Amino acid sequence: MPRLHGPLKDLPHDELRHIAGQVVDTAIAGVTTYVPPATANER
Question: What is the mean pLDDT of residues 20-39?
Answer without folding.
Answer: 77
